[in-house]
Each structure stands twice: as C-alpha cells, then as structure tokens.
Design brief:
This is Lipocalin-like protein. By secondary structure, the protein is mostly beta strands. It has one domain (24-130): Lipocalin (Beta Barrel). It contains 2 helices and 10 strands; from the N terminus they run ααββββββββββ. Strand 7 (92-98) and strand 8 form a beta hairpin.
C-alpha cells in the first residue's frame, strides 16, 4: 500500500515539472517586463511597458529584439536583434545570446502561456507577462 502511494506521488510530481522542451512551448511572442528580482528583498516593479521584448525561436535558434508598441497595434524596433541559441545544460533550458558587442546567457526559471521568468548569470530574475497590445481605433466615427 505504501509503495503504491509513493509511486503515485512520484508520478504526479514528475508530471508537474516543466520539462526542458515544454519550457520553449510558449516563449515566442511579445513580453512586457513585470518585475526584476535582484534579491528576495530587492524587487523593482514595472507598471507600464514603453518597450517590450519580442522573442522568436525555431528549432533552438532565434532572436530577441526590443520593440516599441504603437497606438495602431504595430511595433517599431527599439534596438538591435540579439541572436539566441538554445541549449540544455544540467536539465535546464539556457538561452545563449550574442550580439556584435557581447555574449551572455539566461536560464528559463518558469515558462507558461502568460508568464516567463529568466535568470541571468548574476542571479537576477526577470519576470515577464505576455504583452497585450493597446489598439486604439483612431478612425472611429462618432455616433449620430
């Protein structure tokens, strides 16, 4: 009896863990920074995102670029693209970035449809939420 309960517990715990392949499932798209966790006691919240990150990864290769949302629902580049190479290291998904000026890496801490958390080499954790564009209908006609 105890062995079966232990076995069921182990299976359920294993099924709840985020496998490396599953962590990339929702990463593509627009992400707004929600907060930066420097330490457990030092957190900076972001209420408004004037600049958001666009991430696109296909077959372990991709890019991230900072973009500025426009009122018509489009985006303008606000920086240069950063190349991304995805690797699995110690059962963790690692994003290796490179530009013509620098190379660095971030580890995926959590990845869900609406949330993304990345930890850099200095231990700083960046918490993102899925960005929802603000689209205003500037051509809307007044009701008569």
């Amino acid at each position: 009896m105890r062995i079966s309960i232990l076995l069921i517990l182990m299976i359920s715990l294993n099924s709840c863990t985020n496998k490396p392949e599953e962590q990339l499932e929702h990463i593509n798209g627009y992400w707004g920074i929600e907060k930066v966790e420097f330490t457990k006691d030092s957190i900076r919240d972001f209420k408004i995102n004037e600049i958001v990150d666009y991430i696109e990864i296909v077959d372990s290769v991709g890019f991230r670029i900072k973009v500025k949302p426009q009122f018509d629902g489009t985006y303008k580049p606000a920086g240069e693209p950063e190349k991304i190479l995805v690797k699995i290291e110690d059962k963790k998904v690692v994003l290796h970035y490179s530009t013509s000026f620098n190379n660095w890496k971030e580890f995926i801490v959590a990845s869900k449809k609406e949330e993304l958390s990345l930890k850099n080499e200095r231990g700083i954790i960046y918490h993102y939420k899925r960005y929802k564009p603000l689209k205003l209908d500037l051509d809307e006609k007044e009701n008569e």
